[in-house]
Design goal:
Elements: E1 2-7, H1 9-15, E2 19-23, E3 28-30, H2 31-41, H3 44-50, E4 62-65, E5 68-70, E6 79-81, E7 85-89
Parallel strand pairs: 1-7
Antiparallel strand pairs: 1-2, 3-6, 4-5, 4-7
Length: 95
């Protein structure tokens, strides 16, 4: 299975790219597992922006799959499938 990640703002800077394709075994996997595999592939700086010290997704990070925001409490249940596009958004800033 292949999924595409889109990165924005500070997350894009930490990843060093706008998008990334990740190949995974199987036909579907939970969103949290896919995110863990992504961070294991990229830099420690990237991981520290996405995850807290307890290896949980930070509350300020927003995730959308195929243009639909997924609430944090669904990350361990939501199934990612072949061809999905996962967008990762940093904390909102500005005023």
């Amino acid at each position: 299975m292949k999924v595409t990640f889109l990165f924005f703002s500070s997350i894009r800077e930490a990843a060093g790219m706008k998008h990334f394709e990740l190949n995974l075994d199987g036909n579907e996997e939970t969103l949290i597992n896919v995110l863990i595999k992504l961070t294991n592939t990229l830099s420690e700086q990237f991981r520290s922006i996405i995850f807290n010290d307890n290896f949980e997704i930070k509350d300020s990070i927003k995730i959308a799959v195929n243009e639909t925001y997924i609430p944090k409490y669904e990350f361990s249940k939501f199934k990612v499938k072949n061809g999905d596009v996962i967008a990762i958004f940093p904390p909102a800033s500005g005023g």
